[in-house]
Amino acid sequence: MGVGGGKTHALITLYHLLKVWMLNFRIRDLDKMAVQLRAAGIAVEIDPQSYLNGRFASLHDPEGNPIQLWQPAKPAAPRVASAAPAA
After folding, report:
1. DSSP letter at 51?
2. Cβ neighbours around 26 below 10 Å, total
3. CATH number of 22-72
4. Which stretches of the chain are assigned E, i.e. beta strand?
5. What is the pTM for the complete model shown?
């Protein structure tokens, strides 16, 4: 091992452990996108839970960096206030 090899390896390992960023792509149809990615040989994990702000899936780029796909929830239909009966 060269001079500083152990320290360099430790720093590189620490760098990989501390990666906390992630790309997030907003998409229209999570299921269709997952089918396309899987057809290209990319592993995609769709979160089975739907959240108030939408649905999510996760995958990794070729270097192992995390990527999140987000399909926003459809806006709720506007509520129409009913007219109060005349007194």
Report:
1. B
2. 10
3. 3.10.180.10
4. 23-26, 45-46, 54-60, 66-72
5. 0.65
Tens digits of per-residue pLDDT, 21-35? 788 999 999 999 999
**To the nearest whole percent, how much of the chain has pLDDT over 70?**
68
Which residues make Cβ contacts (< 8 Å) with residue 84, sequence separation at least 6?
Answer: none
DSSP character for 5? H
**58-64: Cβ within 8 A, 24+ apart:** 61/23
Q: The tokens 């906390």 sit on which residue?
A: 20
The pair of three-digit structure tokens given for residue 1, joined into one six-digit string: 């091992």
Domain ranges in the chain are 22-72
How far from chain centre, in Å, is Cα 84?
45
